[in-house]
């Protein structure tokens, strides 16, 4: 297979920046970049730009499936790939040409009854037909370091092949795919969330400030959590741990495949069920697996109280069905600290403080013994409304000892406890160690 992988935009930009310009140039504004991107896509004509209705019409007329890419306005904060590399890739380009291709550049009026996905992804792809039957999903996580463990160009090609296979099935054999639509969301479109109603409309404002008129995908998750916080105070674990990563139950997938297991973590629900490295996941609860995003989607439907997942797989070429049992509180094994949306959770629960697990380099930097574990303060927000911790006296490098009398070794567990065990408005004592001295500061749980 090709050795090409997703290329971080920052890497490409750094390479370009290393070459001095022949003459001074004015750096284009974000607004100019967005308008230039639209003009480029429209002039090339390879993608239908921001018009799902046109894509559905063309799919009905041609009989081809749709590939809908949710890709915000050129998003410099979370971009994870070079689009031209994908479009010109020798294996991917011929597959793309078999789809009606639609690029949606804003989430403002996105149909959340149809498009259900991990909103912390920076590039989400849906495969569907003109009737709105979802064949599968593909996407990249926005983690700054580990995203390449989850996706690849080869994986995208395999997902596209799988979608084309499903599209060729007789209609009578697609019945199970109807279940790939989840329950009705709280709000049918993002611009209807309370926090967006006054600021955003259903469409982009290309005549004015188009950048500021865009609701980005990650903002949907923020709005969902804020709505729950305003309504209930605590955050249900379905809200706090959305679209669980397969690693949370012990599944490590090979990103170059649709769903082949690279590793099964010992002493996890996956290992206890008998899943093995090399197993090819074909269906989960009878839903086809085209990529890791489909595994996340199925897991997202399992309640925090636990449940069973029927796993249809192939092992050494032979079909096999295994029942995977998820115990109570299984979602808590997931990691949410990598998510961009966790910054809003830190504002609510930690006063804008960002804690990380001690590693060898940080222990050495702070002069700590090799066996010291726990959390240290990597960053304290300096600007409102994320500056409560900074104003309270916390400093980067502080070692967390106790939060409201409790000890923690994962920031995810700290966030869950603070958000769901301590009422909004209550103030808690937080003990930290700084250069051998114990200091106590206070934080208020915010809405």
Q: What topology does this entry show?
A:
Elements: H1 9-17, H2 30-44, E1 48-49, H3 52-62, E2 66-70, H4 83-88, H5 92-96, E3 100-104, E4 121-128, E5 134-141, H6 153-168, H7 217-232, H8 237-240, E6 251-253, E7 261-264, H9 269-273, E8 280-284, E9 287-288, H10 292-300, E10 307-315, E11 318-326, H11 342-350, E12 353-357, H12 360-366, E13 375-380, H13 388-392, E14 399-403, H14 411-421, E15 427-434, E16 437-444
Parallel strand pairs: 1-3, 2-3
Antiparallel strand pairs: 2-4, 4-5, 6-7, 8-9, 8-10, 10-11, 12-13, 14-15, 15-16
Describe this structure in words.
The structure is a single chain. The chain has 14 helices and 16 strands. The chain has 447 residues and is an alpha+beta fold. It folds into three domains: 9-170, Glutaredoxin (3-Layer(aba) Sandwich), CATH 3.40.30; 246-333, PDZ domain (Pdz3 Domain, Roll); 342-444, Roll (Pdz3 Domain). The protein has a five-stranded mixed beta sheet with strand order 1-3-2-4-5, sandwiched between helices. The protein starts with 8 loop residues before the first helix and ends with a strand.
Q: How much of the polypeptide forms β-strand, as a percent range? A: 15-25%
Largest sheet: 5 strands, mixed
Into how many domains do the coordinates divide?
3
Strand order of the largest sheet: 1-3-2-4-5
Estimated radius of gyration = 23 Å
Structural class: alpha+beta
Low-confidence stretches: 1-20, 78-82
**CATH A-level architecture of the largest domain:** 3-Layer(aba) Sandwich
Helix percent band: 25-40%
CATH top level assignment of the largest domain: Alpha Beta
CATH homolog superfamily of the largest domain: Glutaredoxin
Shape call: globular
Total helices: the number is: 14
Q: What is the distance, rounded to the nearest whole angstrom, between the alpha carbons of the first and last residues? A: 49 Å
Tell me the series of helices and strands, N- to C-terminal: HHEHEHHEEEHHHEEHEEHEEHEHEHEHEE
Q: Within the CATH hierarchy, at the fold level, what is the topology of the largest domain?
A: Glutaredoxin
State the total count of DSSP E strands: 16
The averaged pLDDT comes out at 89
């Amino acid at each position: 297979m090709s050795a090409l992988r997703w290329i971080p935009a920052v890497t490409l930009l750094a390479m370009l920046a290393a070459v001095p310009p022949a003459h001074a140039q004015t750096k284009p504004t974000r607004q100019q970049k967005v308008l230039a991107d639209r003009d480029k896509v429209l002039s090339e004509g390879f993608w239908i730009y921001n018009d799902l209705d046109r894509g559905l019409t063309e799919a009905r007329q041609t009989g081809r499936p749709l590939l809908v890419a949710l890709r915000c306005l050129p998003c410099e904060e979370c971009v994870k790939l070079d689009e031209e590399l994908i479009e010109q890739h020798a294996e991917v380009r011929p597959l793309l040409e078999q789809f009606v291709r639609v690029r949606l550049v804003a989430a403002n009026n996105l149909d959340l009854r149809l498009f259900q996905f991990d909103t912390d992804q920076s590039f989400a792809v849906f495969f569907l037909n003109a009737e709105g039957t979802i064949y599968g999903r593909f996407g990249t996580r926005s983690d700054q370091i580990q995203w390449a463990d989850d996706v690849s160009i080869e994986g995208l090609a395999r997902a596209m092949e799988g979608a084309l296979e499903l599209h060729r099935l007789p209609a009578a054999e697609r019945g199970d795919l109807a279940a790939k639509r989840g329950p009705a969301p709280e709000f049918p479109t993002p611009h209807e969330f309370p926090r967006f109603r006054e600021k955003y409309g259903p469409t982009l404002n290309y005549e004015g400030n188009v950048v500021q008129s865009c609701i980005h995908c990650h903002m949907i998750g923020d709005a969902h959590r804020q709505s729950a916080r305003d309504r209930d105070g605590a955050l249900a674990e379905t809200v706090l741990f959305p679209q669980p990563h397969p690693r949370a139950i012990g599944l490590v997938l090979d990103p170059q495949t649709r769903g082949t297991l690279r590793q099964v973590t010992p002493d996890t629900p996956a290992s206890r069920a008998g899943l093995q490295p090399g197993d090819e996941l074909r269906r989960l609860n009878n839903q086809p697996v085209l990529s890791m995003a489909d595994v996340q989607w199925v897991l997202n439907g399992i309640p925090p109280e636990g449940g069973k997942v029927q796993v249809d797989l192939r092992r050494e070429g032979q079909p096999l069905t295994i029942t995977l049992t998820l115990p109570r509180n299984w979602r808590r094994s997931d990691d949410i600290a990598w998510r961009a949306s966790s910054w809003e959770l830190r504002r609510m629960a930690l006063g804008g403080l960002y804690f990380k697990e001690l590693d060898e380099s940080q222990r050495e930097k702070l002069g700590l013994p090799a066996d010291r574990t726990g959390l240290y303060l990597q960053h304290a927000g300096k600007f409102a409304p994320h500056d409560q911790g900074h104003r309270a006296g916390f400093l980067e490098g502080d070692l967390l000892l106790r939060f409201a009398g409790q000890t923690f070794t994962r920031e995810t567990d700290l966030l869950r406890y603070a958000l769901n065990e301590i009422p909004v408005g209550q103030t808690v004592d937080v003990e930290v160690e700084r250069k051998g001295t114990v200091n106590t500061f206070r934080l208020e749980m915010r809405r």
